[in-house]
Amino acid sequence: MAKSDELESLINQGRKHGVRKRAILLAAARLFVERGYVDTGIDDIGAAAGISGPAVYRHFPGKQAILLALVELSVERLREGTQAILADRERDPRESLSALVDWFARSSVENPDLNLILQGELLGLPVGDQRRLTRQIRQVREEWVGLLLEARPELSDLAARIAVTSVMGMVTPVLAARLSGDVRTLSVHLKAQMLAVLHVRIEEG
Amino acid sequence: MAKSDELESLINQGRKHGVRKRAILLAAARLFVERGYVDTGIDDIGAAAGISGPAVYRHFPGKQAILLALVELSVERLREGTQAILADRERDPRESLSALVDWFARSSVENPDLNLILQGELLGLPVGDQRRLTRQIRQVREEWVGLLLEARPELSDLAARIAVTSVMGMVTPVLAARLSGDVRTLSVHLKAQMLAVLHVRIEEG
DNA sequence: CAGCAATGTGAACCCGGGTTAACCTATTCT
DNA sequence: AGAATAGGTTAACCCGGGTTCACATTGCTG
């Protein structure tokens, strides 16, 4: 219930969706995560949203559009969250980095569906959207990289990119594994691990 | 070329594949990684393997069977590599852990295709195989967890599982990002990061 | 040489699931 | 009220791509 509420609030956030539309997005998100995009039929989505079959087309132009909406929501959240923390130019880089990681771990764990869809189902989209969204994600990554380089100027660009990529990606497998831990424990551990990766010192060999 | 050779040697390893069969596996692996399983047609696979279309069915019972063969190859490699290192009961847990991480990082980076397919395209398989393979992977994970718990008895089972899951999953996003670094640099950095995660100390909050 | 197994090919098949069509019921607006 | 609009329903469509068919060709083997 907590998960759904969380996702629901996120979907509601952008006010441009009607109530049925939101129900569809909610249902689709759950199904996409459970069975995957390809194995989820339009009829399934409709059924899970209380209507049946082609009625979905009154709200979305097609199946891909639903996936696209979810992925864009996810990317949007990522961008906004990052921006919000980077905008606070009071903190020093170290603090910002910690805040960023904290926010990322928490929001991902509290709302795993969007994260999992974003990671796993980009392939379901037309290549054009795929590229656009990938570019946006890379852009966010570069902001993290920039921040990390401020905090640790001794790192090479490549080293920073590897670290950030790992960090942004290490949450997903944990979510996918559905370990038994509660939200709090999971995010605490993840945060600590992410910071460890960002602060690790490499001895060249 | 290095990548293909590497994968080729892996495929050749199990001697049960004929030359054409191997060519098909090789071609399919590349295509699956590039475009994804669903967007790769049987005709594409055939063409990439030098034959065209339905000739593939002389070697495999169907498209899924190709994917299955690749995924099983990948799981097999994972199990064997893990076993090989765990079998050496001379080393202390710390050393074994380090060796495990080293092997995993290196082999994943040197041969990204199998890793990426394993992570991304499990959904293409029938649920039965999906479950079986997931179970096998979880089993390997539990061996890592056991080793980690030997090395750090103060950890809870959950904490160890979170750490191991992160560690095993953090390689994939780096591979998928296709960062500019060479094989050596990538695996060195990844190894250091993985060890950092395994050795991080959690302060309870 | 006859025969048969192995391997290819292009054409045909076919079917699941996304989409569209045709039609029905509210509710709202003039 | 009458019309337009929003939102649903079931039945039909249809098409892409995995699979199957019918038919070469080659190479062994008896």
From TrEMBL, chains A, B:
GO biological process: negative regulation of DNA-templated transcription
Chain ranges of the HTH tetR-type domain: 18-78
Gene3D superfamilies, alphabetized: Homeodomain-like (1.10.10.60), Tetracycline Repressor, domain 2 (1.10.357.10)
GO molecular function, one term: DNA-binding transcription factor activity
DNA-binding region(s) in UniProt: 41-60
Keywords per UniProt: DNA-binding, Transcription, Transcription regulation
InterPro entries assigned: Homeodomain-like_sf (IPR009057), HTH-type_TetR-like_transc_reg (IPR050109), HTH_TetR (IPR001647), Tet_transcr_reg_TetR-rel_C_sf (IPR036271)
PANTHER family per the UniProt record, alphabetical: HTH-TYPE TRANSCRIPTIONAL REGULATOR RUTR, TRANSCRIPTIONAL REPRESSOR MCE3R
Protein name: DNA-binding transcriptional regulator, AcrR family
Protein's organism: Sinosporangium album
